[in-house]
Amino acid sequence: MHARAVGVRGSLASSFAIGVAASALIGAAGCGNSPPSTSAAPPLAVNGVYAVRIEASSVSSLPVCNAKTAGETAIVTSTTSATLEACVAGAWVPIPCLVGGSVAFDSATDSLWACTQSATGALPAWSQITLPQGPPGAMGATGATGATGATGATGATGATGATGATGATGATGATGATGDTGETGAKGPQGDAGATGPQGAVGPQGPAGAPGSQIQLTSEPPGANCSSGGQRIDVGVAGDGGFIVEQTAYVCNGVSSGADAGATSCVVSALQCADQQPQQCGADGTWENIGPSCDSLSQACVGGACVGVCTPGTTQCSSRNDEQTCVADGQWRPAAACAVTCGLDGKCDGVTAVSVGSGRAFKEGSKEGGVAACALLSDSSVACWGPNTFGQLGNGTTISSSTPVSVLSGGGTKGTQTTPLSGVTAVSTGSESACALLSDRTVACWGDNAEGQLGDGTTTNSSTPVAVSGLKGVRAISVGFSSACAVLANDTVECWGANAQGQLGDGTTTSSSTPVAVSGLKGVRAISVGLSSACAVLANDTVECWGANAQGQLGNGTTTSSSIPVTVPGLSNVAAVSVGGDSACASSGTRVECWGDNAEGQLGNGTTTNSSTPVPVSGLSSTTLRAISVGADSACAVLGNSIRCWGANTDGQLGDGTTTDSSTPVTVVPELVSSSVSVGAETACALSHGSVQCWGANSGGQLGDGTTTDSPTPVAVVW
């Protein structure tokens, strides 16, 4: 029997007369060997037939969509309807039922599900199509009867008869003759016949009957049955002569089968997919593109329509590093063009803080000039750029980068880490090392460790973060040239690293690769570490400093170094302090005062004379003073709508478009509206309108603009 489907709503076979997407197939039947990417399309089985592996009574009873079920399709049935679901990108998403769509084959029950229309004007729905079954195979023949048992053995010979009695003795006298011997006894009777042997074994079972109805799915080339090709479904039985077809139906690519089979043009309004391009059959009987091609990253073309594969309300990063949002129809839509970068959470990241390494630009043994810079992003990760000789970029390498790279989490084999460091609340960059304050109030550091400045108990460099030993409950951190300090929850300070000048503040000049307490320091609000000295703002708004003092950088009126904190006289109402190379500055909200080395005019008082006590920066009194930062030989302050800098300018680090030093503040041009600034060794960076702008030296790529060219005016960091 060979039947062909004859109409859209006719016989049983006609239920197959629907279009099949002609798009490239995603995988063979039996999907799910590996999880799809976040942008994967719903899987199709071979020749456009979905391979159903899971059945459920409701969407909520489906198994979890994860790596085990990724790529699977499932039929969800109820008393009134059925839906076809696909496990894609961590969620079950419905596959639309479109006349002109695909069919689903349930191998567990040998049933087909097709998108059919019950009546003109009715909505198409997934319907189960019951397939006929062939007759059962004949029972195998009964085995033959066993052979008759062998005849029993002959019975034993009877016993010999008894000897006859002796004759009587003759009368005395002549001896009588001896009597004759008695006759031999008669032979015993024949023994009984042996018992009958057992029944022979039952013969072997006859051959198995022929199997019942079977289904064969094969690709149908373009021709009389499907003008554009499609799927042929044969129902029949397998016998000795091979597969015997009893019924045939066709699922054609956008054209009807049966009565319309063999037509050389498509059926008007029919839908199909040409790869990722939806098409519709036009009035002239030819296929026409409808709308744009489906986005290969977020859509699949199914039944002539682009189907979204995302969960509404979720976000992701596009291939262009911009933010996308999944809208109600399950499709990705552009949400925002990221000014910086698209982060770990699928949303645009902003920069919340930036830190440029201070100390000196050229360290003995360094192959590259300059120090690195790091930025804290809004997703609590960190990105760094610039020189990387000692692993100070934290990305598991020692390769420099003139654009930002993600700091990776520690652990694993060197060079194999791929997970970005997360949960960061603050970052501080030193000369060739950096540290991050984490959300659990611990600290992790990376880079150069020759003086133990990573705080992990060793002097081994690390290109990924390592935990500072025994440090907990940290509120703030600051990293200097080769030492670092942390403010703890009890408002005390602990420091680690180099200590030749007493910069650890513990009363000794012995370096330490683990944190030691700063002697007698309590009630600390803020901390800043420089080249070989450090200063703290106390709860009473005064400042205490310790360490090297050859240039008067402790501000106590002497040039005598101190391994314990000393008070900077004459300062009150201090809001912030910043320590650079051999100088420091403090702000009181409306004015800035500096002390220490002034060879390059970095005290900003119009001279180049050192001062061991604070002197006011000329012309910087302002009610809108927002922030200060001191670098190796220069300093900057953020005012209302501008940034003012002073000191050395050999590499353009004052940002005024020149390379001329200035002992009084000059304005960074063009003017930047900013809330913070960080000055390092011959380089400075500021946050402005959500982006990072840097200026000055760039020999190691520390401006982050993708070049190694110095710039005396701000350039944007390229993400």
Q: What percent of residues are in strands?
A: 35-45%
Largest sheet: 7 strands, mixed
Work out the helicity level.
under 10%
Instruction: Give the overall shape.
Output: elongated
By DSSP, the count of extended strands is 48
Number of helices: 0
Q: Roughly how many Å is the radius of gyration? A: 47 Å
Low confidence ranges: 1-41, 44-48, 132-144, 208-213, 254-264, 360-369
Please give the alpha-carbon distance between the first and last residues: 68 Å
**Strand order within the widest beta sheet:** 4-3-2-1-5-6-7
Mean pLDDT: 76
Report on this model:
Residues 1-41, 44-48, 132-144, 208-213, 254-264 and 360-369 have low confidence and may be disordered. The chain has 719 residues and is an all-beta fold. A seven-stranded mixed sheet has the order 4-3-2-1-5-6-7, with no helix packed on it. Strand 25 and strand 26 form a beta hairpin. 48% of the residues are buried. The two termini are 68 Å apart. The chain is built from no helices and 48 strands. The protein is elongated, with a radius of gyration of 47 Å.
Layout of helices and strands:
Layout: E1 49-56, E2 73-77, E3 82-88, E4 91-94, E5 103-106, E6 111-116, E7 125-129, E8 213-220, E9 230-239, E10 242-252, E11 271-274, E12 277-281, E13 287-289, E14 299-302, E15 305-308, E16 315-317, E17 323-326, E18 332-336, E19 341-342, E20 348-349, E21 351-356, E22 373-377, E23 382-386, E24 401-406, E25 424-429, E26 433-438, E27 443-447, E28 462-467, E29 474-479, E30 483-488, E31 493-497, E32 512-517, E33 524-529, E34 533-538, E35 543-547, E36 562-567, E37 576-579, E38 583-587, E39 592-596, E40 611-616, E41 627-630, E42 634-638, E43 643-647, E44 662-667, E45 677-679, E46 683-688, E47 691-696, E48 711-716
